[in-house]
Structures are given as C-alpha cells and as structure tokens.
Amino acid sequence: MENNVFFDYFAFSSKIDSPFSIMELIGLSDLNWLTCKGFHGYRQQFYCNGIHIHFDGREDMGVCLEMSGSGCRMFEDNGGSFINLIRYCYDNKDEINITRIDVSYDDFKGILDLNQIENDIVAGNYRSRFRSFPVERVHSKTPDKRTHTIYCGSKQSEIMFRIYDKKAEQHSDCAHWVRFEIQLRRERAEVFSGLCLENPLNALFLGVIQNYLTIIEEVTTDSNISRAVTKAYWLKFLSDVSAVRLTKEPSDYTTANLQRFVEKQLPSAVVAYIALFGFEEFIELLNRRSRVKLNVRHQALLDNAKIDLKTFCDLVR
Hints:
Blueprint: E1 4-14, H1 19-25, E2 34-37, E3 44-48, E4 51-55, E5 63-67, H2 69-77, H3 82-91, E6 96-107, H4 114-122, E7 126-128, E8 135-138, E9 147-152, E10 159-165, H5 166-170, E11 178-185, H6 186-196, H7 201-212, E12 213-215, H8 232-238, H9 255-265, H10 267-277, H11 279-289, H12 296-304, H13 309-316
Antiparallel strand pairs: 1-5, 1-6, 2-3, 3-4, 4-5, 6-11, 7-12, 8-9, 9-10, 10-11
Helix pairs in contact: 10-11, 11-13
C-alpha cells in the first residue's frame, strides 16, 4: 500500500440548497437515503453510508452537508470531486459556509513512529504553534486492542493534529499503519479550501504541518530553537515543503465578510445594549472605540473606503 493524502471529513452549510439539490450536487440522488432525526439544531436529516444532509432547522440555517470518512470515500468512489465541490462553495461563498475539513495521511512505510514522536515532544525537541500535546493510550491484555493517539492542540480550536495507530484501531494485519490527521474548522477550513483550488493537496497538507510543528534535534548550546536542525525522520516526512499559513490577509477580508459577521453574531447584543443604556450611550461607545486601534482587517476596510473612524463618530454624536 502506498502512502497517500486524502479528504477524510467535509462539511458545509448552504442557504441556497435543498436536501434534494445537495443529493444532486454530490451525484448520489439515486441512493437509498434514510430519514432520521437531525443534529446541530436541525430537526431532520437524510443519511446514507456516512453522509448526512441535515435540514428543517431555523429559517436562516438552510441545509448542512456532513461527510465522515466513509462518506468521503463513497462520494469519491461514485465519481465525486472535492475540488469541484469546493469550487461550488466558493462560487456561492456569500450563501455557503464551509465549516469543517479533515485531511489525512496514511503512512504504511514506517516514516512516522508514534513512540519516537511522543518521546521528542516530551523531551521538548520541537518548534510549534501549539501549546498542548495530550496523549491518549488504551491499554488491554490483548495486544491488538491497544491504541495510542497524540493530539496537537485543542479539540475546540480551529486547527488540531491527530496522530494515531490506525493499524491497532482497525485490527489490521499490515506491517505498519499510522494516520496523521489535520482537523480544520471555520476560518482555517475556509482558507485551506480556497488554497485547494490552486495547489496540490499533498503539498498543502505537508505545508500546514511545516507551519505548525517541526521536530528538531535536541538543543544543547544555542537557546534560539529557530536555528535548530530538523530531525531526519521529520525531514523525510515533510519532503522539504514550504510552510503554509491558514490565516486571512487583510486584503482577503471583504465588506461582505464583515456584514455576515455583524448580522449573525451581534444583533442580539446590540439591541440589549441600547435597551439597557440608551442609543446615546451606544454612540458614545462608538466614539470611545474610535480611540482604540482597530483589528487590522477592519482598519483595512475603512482605509480602502477612505473613512476615518474618529471623524465618522464625531459626526454622529
């Protein structure tokens, strides 16, 4: 078996689709779909072999497509293309929101040794943007039921790595099988999916790892770990790829992004604030905020529109 990189989870919500148009979109409308209770705030769902289509939620929720690993394989086995699916989402990005993407790498060649990786992390032989590295072990008297998982980052964050013994999980008789998964949510999933339209999946996957985690030789004399030498097995794994950042540049943030955020996240708080403190106090709040340095993305929008926030607040007082 060859080492490979593949989509292992994919989810988006759409305000322009119905459950049946989603079935058509993924080319699986002829399957035997089961009607079940929905999740994530939806009352109903259609389900088939790892693919969930949630519907019947609030009016502003639209529908939600959710494909697990088995669903991703069925989608591809029936001629589906994730690049085409992502392109559809981007062509309708004001109405479709990619919420989660998992990309996985299966190592059958013995490049990744879980114990070696854990030992290097425990010893501090790494550079990383992650602050925590939880390790889970399942012990059993039966050897083939023992499992081992290394997590890089928090399960609640927008990006997390998961490295585990797939051979033990699947009770496989292959010689070696370690899986390395990248789980992406919200903005990280959105940025990664956009990069998929222009770059090979394999290079993106390794580039993200390069940006977030590097295993290095033990540092003994130089306290600057940025100059530390990367360990040979990690170099072999990453193949000398360039790091890939998953943050939006200010130029990528548009007035439509801002409008969606305000409409979805702020109305309730703004109404409650004005009801409690009055509209004049709300305007005064805006004036006070004008003296505070704005988020770089918001400032870029104002600069592009040639709007000075303080001047604006003075006008509306």
